[in-house]
Amino acid sequence: MTRQIVLDTETTGLNAKLGDRVIEIGCIEIASRRFTERNFHAYVNPGRDIDEGALKVHGLSKEFLADKPAFAEVAGDFVAYVQGAELVIHNADFDVEFLDLELKLAGLGRLSDYAGKITDTLALARELHPGKKNSLDALCERYAIDNSNRTFHGALLDARLLAECFLAMTRGQESLMMELEAPAAAASALAALKVDVSRLMVVRATDEEAALHEQYLDAMEKEAKGPPLWRRILGTA
User: Fold this and answer.
1) Is 89 within 8 Å of 95 (Cβ atoms)?
2) CA angle 175–178–181, rounded 5-degree value
3) What is the DSSP letter of 177?
4) Rounded-to-integer distance, Cα 131 and Cα 136, Å
């Protein structure tokens, strides 16, 4: 089972080297390309003021964070949660620098000591869409993902939106792996199957799954500038 954790942070400002600190961590877990709802979220008291520019972005004030734990108090749970997983982060260098600083101050090494791999979705988006805007908002618009609740940046909400964008950006990987499978081995496996079709159980899609399917088709239609084959066959294009 492939375990991936989509991660986002909010900070007191933009420069870890000048003393800015992490104030929120949000993580969304994906296992075998499905959301597990086993997420991680923590607000953190940075022990310092919040830059005015950062406050306008995330809305997390010094007063709100005053009774929250210090990073060192949540660090153990955090590293246990991410242990061995692929971390998926937008503009990963920024978040990794801040988390490396916090982990060092807590005496826990670096993020790479715990993560199996770190994937930067900004770099991935630039490969897929060169010359285009590749901010989180731009990706949500491109892949027809609803981000209307994103009044302020929030680590957990942004991680969820990024997770949906990441799944949309990598949706062709399953078919690629199928194409790479040896034809002889695949034919042998099919020949060995003996299935009584009359006894197969039909599992209908839920309303939520149907809505996600329509979002997927909307994104395909936008990218291709024309209706996908599925909608043409059904006559809904």
Assistant:
1) yes
2) 155
3) H
4) 15
Is residue 167 within 8 A of residue 139, CB to CB? The reply is no
**Per CATH, which fold does 3-169 belong to?**
Nucleotidyltransferase; domain 5 (3.30.420)
CB contact at 8 A, 121 and 88: yes
Name the token pair of 99.
């988390």
Length of the chain: 237
| Contact by Cβ (8 Å): 153, 58 | yes
pTM, two decimals, is: 0.74
Q: Which residues have a catalytic role annotated?
A: 153
pLDDT for 163-199, tens place per residue?
999 999 999 754 444 444 445 555 555 455 555 656 6
**Cβ count within 10 A of residue 10:** 25
CATH 3.30.420.10 intervals, the chain: 3-169
